[in-house]
Write a structure and sequence with these properties.
The protein contains ten helices and 14 strands. The protein is of the alpha/beta class.
Length: about 325
């Protein structure tokens, strides 16, 4: 049976490229739409690339109508919480307005299935952890609000019957392709695991802990780290759900367990054997103390079974990728 065509925005980025890899390995016909502002063309192991921006609505419309995808997966977004506090308009433009451009183009082109790269940041400072999908959406920074606004747009559009969607609320994506072909590379890098591994290589200046006085067991922030390949599998299950006529909704993507900043550093020391210098600095604005998923809805509805729920395995795959980088 011929697999459906999938249009992927931001497919040359970290998570997008791993989803492209997984889809390509399963025989899907893929077209990536990416301006390469943060993505990398050489990260695309499958499919074709259109280098363009979602603000170019005429080209976006043309490409969608010519490709005629069965579904759109939307990864293109700005992702840094601290930057969103400094430059909120960048986040509302890139993450909300450009996504609305995409949804308008989809409506005109008659594309009805949409998978959205959302975030645990929509929950803000949750009252109850692990977090279920019924928790209030109460973001505490512009990044989280930009994702929350788009989820509301999706719900409103779905109520018209013109689309069905899945919003996958990522917790902390980490790790890399086991073969070391693709991995995480942001410039500048701000995610904890790659920063810790750069420090292990001696290419960084050590690692900073931003706040050690949070109400957590060791005083540092706790996050739910999920291997990027398990996240890719979740996208394919969401795609099949929609194509088979499934309903819309939001789903958590995490393992249901948290690791503190200090635990990540200790695990990286075990994996790399390196001495990793640490300094403690003040808290960053917009950082919740604990974000841990309750992923049971994802598992029960989609049959999602993570394969890589092991912190040292996650760090080891990221380390193999990091060592290959110049």
């Amino acid at each position: 049976m011929t697999k459906p065509k999938v249009f992927i925005t931001g497919g040359a980025g970290y998570i997008g490229s791993h989803v492209v890899k997984a889809l390509g390995e399963q025989g899907y016909d893929i077209l990536v739409f990416d301006n390469l502002s943060t993505g990398h063309a050489d990260a695309l192991l499958h499919g074709k690339l259109v280098r363009a921006d979602l603000a170019d609505t005429a080209l976006l419309q043309k490409v969608l109508e010519e490709f005629k995808p069965a579904a759109v997966m939307h990864f293109a977004a700005s992702i840094e919480v601290a930057e969103s506090v400094r430059e909120p308009m960048k986040y509302y433009r890139n993450n909300t307005a450009n996504a609305v451009n995409l949804l308008c183009a989809m409506e005109k082109a008659g594309v009805r299935h949409f998978i959205f790269s959302s975030s645990a940041a929509v929950y803000g400072n949750p009252a109850v952890v692990p977090i279920t999908e019924t928790a209030p959406l109460a973001p505490i920074n512009p990044y989280g609000r930009s994702k929350t606004f788009l989820e509301q747009v999706l719900a409103d559009q779905a109520s018209t019957g013109k689309i069905r969607y899945i919003a996958l609320r990522y917790f902390n994506a980490a790790g890399a392709d086991e073969g070391g072909r693709i991995g995480e590379r942001h410039d500048p890098e701000s995610h904890l695991i790659p920063l810790v591994l750069k420090a292990a290589r001696g290419t960084g200046k050590g690692i900073s802990i931003y706040g050690d006085d949070y109400p957590t067991p060791d005083g540092t922030c706790v996050r739910d780290y999920i291997h990027v390949n398990d996240l890719a599998d979740a996208h394919i299950l969401a795609l099949k759900h929609l194509v088979d006529g499934g309903d819309s909704g939001g789903y958590n993507c995490g393992y249901g367990k948290g690791h503190s900043v200090r635990a990540i550093i200790d695990a990286a020391r075990n994996v790399t054997g390196a001495v990793i210098p640490v300094t403690v600095e003040g808290r960053r604005e917009g950082d919740p103390p604990v974000l841990v998923a309750d992923p049971s809805r994802m598992s029960s509805r989609f049959g999602w079974k993570p394969k890589h729920d092991d912190l040292e395995y996650i760090i080891r795959t990221a380390w193999e990728w990091e060592k290959k980088r110049i």
